[in-house]
Design brief:
The chain is an all-beta fold and about 425 residues long. It has a domain of about 270 residues: TonB-dependent receptor, beta-barrel domain (Maltoporin, Chain A). Helix content is about 0%, strand content about 65%. The protein contains 2 helices and 21 strands. The strands form 3 sheets. It has a 17-stranded antiparallel sheet. The chain has a two-stranded antiparallel ribbon with strand order 11-12. The two termini are about 40 Å apart.
């Protein structure tokens, strides 16, 4: 592929170790798992070419060297619902069967992360260089109850606590500690089955975590202007209503209407080292998922999704959410159980979407196809051939619209910036087990 800066690129590595232990008894299951990850990346990018630094160019380096440690524990147990209340409501709940689960999840990251100005991968200035420790603790519990032979429910609650500690090596004002917490309830109600069909309703709250550097930021590292801190945890609320059926022989199908609301938030932009305001947004759509066993040896998977995404607060610049794709489809055909041989072909379609808030510039849809042929050599070894972008389509993996300036130009130009999909590629893999 062509690039205006031939020194763009990077290196990465990842090593991980994980383990799991579980025990099953007559009343439930105990599970314990732990993991450790060593991750490092050094990435050199130049998105705007010579917009900010006409002489040497706008290339910058992002470095991330982190150690991640995690632990999870859970206990499930079967019981009678009335027992949860010490028999207080035994007459109301009677002997309704229930299954409950309680759990704990812990994660701790030790990170050295930086953002530097570079020319041909040589550092010329520093924007951010930080040592970070962040810890996430999650406690949850849920109970599923079969109220009648045709009605059951799941009620759950999760509590999350986040702690961030940032030591800024270039700007002491951006050092500090921050904490955040969030309660996330959820509810599921399932009715049926009737004629091998059931209806379901789900509602719940979730979250995403922000970059730790934004939670303690006081000044913009480039301009020195005052900066707003970002929340550590940002809530989202979702709803889903749908149906699942196996009424047709060999077909599993589900259809769901959904909605997802995101709170208004500030977002830490890693490419700039600063915070950026975002409006609250709402997304709603339809998903249709199907798996059809056409023959004992032939599977067909077909998934379709449509999404309507808009900012919730009016603004003269527009209400569309940039890079929100409206339509997605996937069809896969798999042939299996033909002796040691198996094969699959997948077609994927990503629809067009707005690149700017007023929808005046839109991305181009992206259809691709992949092929896989595998042969099992023994009980512990498999040889696989993958053909990516089977028909060698010239499409884009990602598309943006923003201002940039080429060397020698006097003014910036707003235009599309794309990363093309990889051309047709073959990959041969030998997997050995022991």
């Amino acid at each position: 592929f062509d690039s205006l800066d031939a020194s763009d690129g990077g290196e990465t590595r990842r090593n991980s170790l994980s383990g799991e232990w579980h025990a099953r008894t007559a009343s439930g299951t105990t599970q314990l798992s732990a993991y450790a990850i060593d991750y490092r990346v050094s990435l050199f990018s130049n998105f705007t070419y010579a917009l900010e630094r006409p002489t040497g160019g706008d290339q910058f380096a992002q470095t991330d060297d982190r150690k991640v440690y995690g632990l999870a524990a859970s206990q499930t147990f079967d019981h009678v619902l009335g027992d949860m209340f010490g028999g207080l409501f035994g007459g109301v709940f009677g002997s309704l069967p229930a299954r409950s689960e309680i759990g704990l999840q812990v994660r701790h990251d030790r990170i050295r992360v930086g953002l530097f100005d570079t020319v041909a991968r040589q550092v010329t200035g520093g924007t951010r260089d930080d040592q970070i420790q962040q810890s996430l603790l999650g406690l949850y519990g849920q109970t599923s109850v079969e109220w009648t032979p045709w009605l059951r429910s799941v009620v759950g609650l999760r509590a999350d606590q986040a702690r961030f500690k940032v030591d800024s090596l270039l700007q002491a004002l951006n050092s500090g500690e921050a904490r955040d917490h969030l309660l996330s309830p959820k509810l599921s109600v399932i009715a049926g089955p009737w004629a091998r069909t059931e209806l379901f309703f789900n509602a719940g709250r979730g979250f995403h975590s922000n970059d730790a550097r934004g939670t303690t930021a006081r000044v913009d590292p480039r301009t020195g202007a005052a900066a707003d801190k970002v929340p550590g945890l940002v809530a989202a609320t979702g709803y889903e209503l749908g149906a699942r059926t196996e009424w047709f022989r060999g077909l599993q199908s589900s259809l769901a209407l959904w909605r997802l609301d995101f709170d208004s938030e500030l977002v830490y932009v890693g490419d700039a080292g600063a915070t950026e305001a975002n409006r609250p947004s709402a997304r709603r759509g339809v998903e249709w998922n199907n798996r059809w066993a056409a023959l004992p040896w032939l599977l067909v998977d077909a998934d379709l999704a449509w999404t309507h995404a808009r900012f919730s607060v009016a603004d003269p610049v527009g209400e569309r959410i940039p890079n929100s794709v409206g339509k997605v489809a996937s069809v896969a055909v798999t042939a299996r159980d033909s002796g040691p041989w198996s094969a699959s072909m997948q077609w994927r379609y990503l629809g067009a979407g707005p690149l700017v808030e007023d929808n005046s510039v839109r991305s181009i849809s992206s259809p691709t196809a992949n092929l896989r042929i595998a042969r099992k050599l023994s009980s512990t070894s498999t040889l696989t051939l993958d053909v990516f972008n089977l028909f060698n389509r010239q499409v884009n993996d990602i598309q943006y619209h923003y201002d940039s300036k080429l060397p020698g130009e006097t003014t910036a130009v707003a235009d599309r910036h794309v990363h093309p999909a990889e051309p047709r590629q073959l990959r041969l893999t030998l997997a050995l087990g022991f």
